[in-house]
Design goal:
Keywords: Phosphoprotein. The chain has helices at residues 44-54, 67-76, 93-101, 106-109, 122-132, 144-154, and strands at 18-20, 35-40, 59-64, 81-85, 113-117, 136-139. With 160 residues, it is of the alpha/beta class.
């Protein structure tokens, strides 16, 4: 385990959850319909940490433990932002992003995608993500301020 990273939890059954978060401050959207964020990561602890980091915005969260599950959720739900890990069993984050970009639903195909990785070969992973059409890239471990800056850059606040 690298310093600054969270250990992966024991495997849990695949499931999708919706978890509304209350704003704690920062850029909030009082009175606006919450934007929906899909968190795609095989680590429950990383998904939880991302939710904590993003609680300053009035988001609703949907979760997927794999890219394959993430595709199903994205096609069934209205999503405003996707945060995905690169390394997951099965399909990786770049291939997941490419499938989102190729989706027949034009709204889904344009959803901002932020891809994360803890891979030491950052340049290669970033290049794969950019080729797939990601909107932003960040290396793990990511700080709250870094994540919020990227999210604020790629996902505008909703209008009331």
């Amino acid at each position: 385990m690298k310093a600054g990273t969270l250990p992966s939890p024991e495997p849990v059954p695949n499931r999708t959850t919706t978890d509304p978060a209350r704003p704690l401050g920062g850029r909030t959207t009082a009175g606006a319909v919450p934007q929906r964020v899909l968190l795609v990561d095989d680590s429950r602890s990383i998904r939880t940490l991302l939710k904590i980091y993003l609680m300053a915005r009035n988001f609703e969260f949907l979760e997927a433990e794999s890219a394959e599950e993430g595709l199903k959720v994205a096609e069934a739900e209205t999503i405003d932002l996707i945060l995905t890990d690169f390394h997951m069993d099965g399909m990786n984050g770049a291939d997941f992003a490419a499938q989102i970009r190729a989706n027949a639903n034009p709204k889904l195909a344009k959803v901002p995608i932020l891809m994360m990785t803890g891979d030491p070969n950052v340049a290669e992973v970033r290049a794969l993500g950019q080729k797939a059409g990601i909107s932003a890239f960040v290396r793990k471990p990511v700080s709250c301020a870094q994540l919020m800056t990227l999210v604020d850059t790629i996902l505008p606040l909703p209008r009331k």
